[in-house]
Amino acid sequence: MKLSELLERDRFSLSFEVFPPKTDTAFDSVKLATEEIAKLSPSFMSVTYGAGGGTGRYTLEIAKNIKENHGVPTLAHLTCVSSTKETVKEKIEQMKEAGIENVMALRGDLTPELEGSDRSRWAYRYAVDLIHELRECGADFCIGGACYPEVHPESANQKEDIKHLKEKVEAGCSFLTTQMFFDNNLLYNFLYKIREAGITVPIIPGVMPITNGNQVERAIKLSGSFMPQRFKSLVDKFGSTPAAMKQAGIAYATDQIIDLFANGITNVHVYSMNKPDVACAIVANLSDILGEKK
Ligand code: FAD
Question: Against a cut of 0.90, is the pTM above it?
Fold first, then answer.
């Protein structure tokens, strides 16, 4: 099912993000974890590409398994920044063969080697280049893009970032998923600005339940997200007690999701990654809300 159709539904729902294995030996455990999450009947599941060293082959295998054997619509991620035209075209062909309907078109993060290389020689400089490729490949993919309520770290300012975001939408994005954030007011402010800029496609807010004190530093470093005092206090108090931090992190994410639903959002994307217990706890916390009419 195309996510553009699914996002038109007016019932509260959650989607979950998972990541592919880095090695063959990890494949079975990742497959099992993703299947456990699929059993929660999310609106869809997204499978990241290359993050942490996983390969595109695994992204497609996991996405295909979730869709075909568990009936959950999937969104396969694809990055382009260090790729040649041939590699990207080959990946797109593999997606077509695997029956993938939804693709998250991303640039990918710049490694230190890429930062220092000659950008004029790159086949793809920005996600928008990949969106054009996907639009011209002859398949009718439903394409998504990434957006940043707190501004992408490489952008000079929010105005520039939103200008380029609009270019992605005009190139063919049917929806946008946000980077994680811990203060919903940042999302509401961002929504106001992008709507004012004429971006009208559905926005899927991304929420990451922080369930481990050690995860905080890495998550903040990667996303550049602002940590509200309420969240900092929680990490200070419970960060060194794993079970307590997990419970507090799930409660914080649940609270964020309820507030988003109460303020006009219908689908929230949960970055619970390959942790069925965390996904399950959030679904249980929202059992009387999920499926309700907006
Ligand atoms: P772009 O949209 O290309 O933007 C990158 C920067 O370039 C921004 O600052 C933008 O303003 C600027 N820009 C865009 N177009 C132009 C232009 N024409 N001229 C000048 N500047 C321009 N990474 C992975 O490796 N695998 C994943 O599966 C993955 N999934 C993600 C999912 C989500 C929802 C998000 C938010 C991020 C994900 N990432 C993933 C991380 C992502 O690859 C990085 O954040 C990356 O740095 C930017 O990717 P992008 O697609 O947003 O890039």
Answer: yes
